[in-house]
Amino acid sequence: MKVAITxxxxxxGSHLVQRLHGEGHRIVVLTRNTAFAQKVFPSEAFPNLExxxxxxxxxxxxxxxIASCDGVVNLAGEPIGEGRWTPERKQEILNSRKLGTQKxxxxxxxxxxxxxxxINASAIGYYGTSETATFDETSLSGxxxxxxVCQAWEAEARKVEDAGVRLVILRFGIVLGNGGALGKMIPPxxxxxxxxxxxxxxxxxxxxxxxxxxxxxxxxxxxxIEGVYNATAPNPVRMADLSQTLGxxxxxxxxxxxxxFAIEALxxxxxxxxxxxxxxxxxxxxxxxxxxxxxNLQSALTQILT
Length: 306
What we know:
seven-stranded parallel sheet; alpha/beta; globular; two-stranded parallel ribbon
């Protein structure tokens, strides 16, 4: 296959590129920062990879490359868990997803021939937060800021179906691997200062990076995969259980809680990402017959940390 990827230099994207390249596929990396992309994917190590500058919010000559691709994976978006959510920051978070997806869909609609599939990232933030409710792909959306972002993001992606192109929307849970969210949790544990964040009762719906990459590959290669799928492991846990398991795997104590006010002081409104969660089940994903390598947190953390 030849696959175009946005957000390729990020945590998920770089793992996906390595996997696709390892399997002999050709890759087009659409990036705002070609110099950085060349450092991440040096040409001698990635001979089947092309790096192309693009402007996510603007039409341009970059869009013509889509016509030569079999599939497009759209992972681009401003990080939501870094820094305070000022009004300007919230607008950036929304625009990076809504407008970026709009231009990708425009490129696909104008392509001749068209790629056969668009795989568009979304997030389980779509469902809002709750300590008591459970969610699957049929659940209604929430009404907080992240839910509104996901609704707008997905609405733009759905327009690709008007061009007759198969669409797969993957609602990501918290992705576990070397780096990402887990990378920020490990240092306190190493210093014997780890513990649950906030009340510890909030739900933590997660997926191992290898399973997420496998899920994207399944979506690329199986034409019967279509619509919305939760990219989460089948066994969500509460934050307290995550901390306890992390402590066990690292052989460190996990009793020192991080108070909610400390996270709120750091992140402002963005603290909702870690202080409130949602219990999400991948009902449709499991129904496809997808086999998880890491369905349980213990096995996932053990693989990552050892």
